[in-house]
Amino acid sequence: MSTQPSAVENTPRTPLGAWRKLREGNARFISGDTLHPHQDAQRRKDLAQSQKPFAVIFGCSDSRLAAEIIFDLGLGDAFVIRTAGQVIDNAVLGTLEYAIEVLGTPLIMVLGHDSCGAVTATKASVESGELPRGFQRDLVERITPSVLEARRQGHTDLQDMVVEHTKQTAARMLDQSAAISGAVSRGEAAVIGVFYHLSDGQADLVYSNDPAFRDA
């Protein structure tokens, strides 16, 4: 008989609780002591009719940034959205709003990482003045404000630009979505930015407008 918890048992329902659970999972991933929770047949059956994820993870599409793995999660734990360079568009905003308003998810994490190819391409474009062809141009154009802001602050290193882009993305979704900003203002949800290190697997908080997260 399975010993896995039910679909709602031990599920964080507060923003800070969700962040702590993600941190715990990331620590297990780093140490190699992963539990692979919620990945059995019973969990699958429990979730067949409904879902109640405790976090939305909006990250880069990079193959090395598999959110469920690096935070040691399972079925039904995270609502995951991925685009190259975690670039926001209307479809992404609509998906985020669905998670907040319909699913009642308490935490949105923007997940960036070092050596990001989309930010690398944008940095090169800003420096050369040449834009890529096709729809990759749209990605670069959307990331360019973050690269320019990093440069304005005196940051020329790629990783600093990724961190700035992560921060800008988190702030931008609050500016652009009344549903998200409203949930945050009511204390029902929070938006954070996290920077992931490919070499050691560490996920560091780089953005939050709530001091409680920085002290957690």
TrEMBL record:
SMART domains attached to this UniProt entry: Pro_CA
GO BP terms: carbon utilization
Protein biosynthesis is among the record's keywords: no
InterPro entries found in the cross-reference section: Carbonic_anhydrase (IPR001765), Carbonic_anhydrase_CS (IPR015892), Carbonic_anhydrase_sf (IPR036874)
Residues that hold Zn(2+) according to the record: 60, 62, 113, 116
Reactions catalysed: hydrogencarbonate + H(+) = CO2 + H2O
SUPFAM superfamilies according to UniProt: beta-carbonic anhydrase, cab (SSF53056)
One term of GO molecular function: zinc ion binding
E.C. numbers: 4.2.1.1
Cofactor note: Binds 1 zinc ion per subunit.
Record keywords: Lyase, Metal-binding, Zinc
Named cofactor requirement(s): Zn(2+)
PANTHER family, A to Z: CARBONIC ANHYDRASE, CARBONIC ANHYDRASE 2
Family that this chain belongs to: Belongs to the beta-class carbonic anhydrase family.
Function recorded in the entry: Reversible hydration of carbon dioxide. Catalyzes the reversible hydration of carbon dioxide to form bicarbonate.
Protein name per Swiss-Prot or TrEMBL: Carbonic anhydrase
Lineage: Bacteria, Bacillati, Actinomycetota, Actinomycetes, Micrococcales
